[in-house]
Design goal:
The protein has 14 helices and two strands; from the N terminus they run H-H-H-H-H-H-H-H-H-H-H-H-E-H-H-E. By secondary structure, the protein is mainly alpha-helical.
Amino acid sequence: MKLFSLAALIETQRPFFIGLGSLAIFFILYILVGSNGWGEPASWEQGIGEISRWCERVKEGLFHEPINALSNIGFMVAGLFMLWILGRDQIQRKNASNFHGFNSIALLYASVSIWLGPGSLLMHGTHTAWGAWADNLSMVMYIVIPWLYNFKVMAKWSVSTFFKVYLSIIIAYGLGRWFLGDGMGIGFSVYGVSIGIWVVSEFLFRFWSQRMRFISGFIGFLVAAVFGIYPQEIFNNLDQYWWIAFFWLPGIICKSEPDYERRHFPWYFVGMFLYISAFVIWLQGYPDQPLCNPDSLIQPHGIWHILCSLATLSFFVFLRTEQIKKREA
């Protein structure tokens, strides 16, 4: 059996070590900047000793919400593990899908999964407005990838087009969130709507047909219902829920049947189960909820972070099941 030298290991696992080094730099900078305090907190955050928006009591020091901040290490570990797997693919020369080896989209997914950790940590740790911006940006950077990749496949985009559209969305959102605040000034949650678009596009990916391009949009209402927004409420308040029109975006963009197929069971459903479970627990992470104990080492919001990090890993494994669709002779 051929043994790889340390130099060869570092070379083949370069993205992993870059990710690990980037996290080390992040924590060093975090400590250096935060050692003198984080300055003026955001107007919506609570003071030292009070109960935070996410249940945990606000403390002095580097981490104003220690448990809620440090639980984000789960995302970092999950993302690094993804990079290690991609490096292993490279060693074994596995290129079974666009999520094997050092494929640019696979590396983007793993890297952004890592960034979910620092982004959220900056919000819970610093209680600053820019920390909240970084948190929201990291969430959007992640959730856009799966549905935009589905668009790429079913619209026959090049990799270059995928990245151009992705960067355009992220830059537009980053600027809009920075200058216009949460909701972009128009009550539009890019993250929330993206969840619906992803599920709709995944349904269309599995059951693509000309008819399904229209029918698939209605799946978005099921997604909204899972998160407590029911059709009656939507149609009684269309001025507030105007964004349901985006549920038909996959049908408009995805004009071609995908050349790939995926095995949705078990990992897609495992990821969905983990995320929905995390959401249920997230709802308990408010000060007025019975499970909120601000001084406990077990925080609902911290559990939300851990379960979500496992969900990102489950979806990664799911995407790796993609293979060229077998055509009948």
